[in-house]
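Entry: Solute carrier family 46 member 3
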Amino acid sequence: MVRVFLIEPVVGVYAFSMFMLYPLIQQYVYRRLWQQLTGAPYPTQLNYTHCSDSSTNLSSIHQEIQKEASLFLFYSELCFLFPSLLSSLLLVSYSDHRGRKVALVPPLVGELLFALCYATVSHLSLSLGYLLGASFLAGVMGGPTALLGGSFAYIADLCEGGKGRWGELPM
C-alpha cells in the first residue's frame, strides 16, 4: 500500500498564500486609514516636490497615516500573538494523544476564516475592527506555530527511531 505524504505541499501552499496576503493587508489598511483621516480618496499619482509648501502638508499627512497604520497592524499582531501562543501549545501537545490532524487542521481553518473576513471587509468596506477580531480568531485556532509544530511532530513520527524513508539519519 502506498502512503501519500501531503504535509510538505500543505505547508508550502499555506506559507505562499500567507506571504501573499500580509502585504495586501498592510496596503489595504493604509488606504482605508487615508480615506478615514483625510476624507479624500487615495491619490493614485503623487506629484509633489520637496521644495513646495504643499509637500510639507502631504508629508505630514503621510507620516500621520503611517503612524496610525503601524499602530493598527501592531494591535492586529498582538490580537493574534497571545491566543496563538497558548493554543499552539495546547494543540500540539493534544495531537500527541489524538493524532496529528488536531494540530494541522485548525490553523488552516483559522487562516481560511481570516482570509474570508479580510475579503468581506475589503469588499463591503466594513470597519477595520473586524480584522482585529479575525486576527484573534486565527490566533485561537493556532496559527502558523501550531501548523509547523504539528508538521514537525508528524515528520518525527515518520522517522521511527532515527530511521526514515531515506535510511539511517545522522545523530
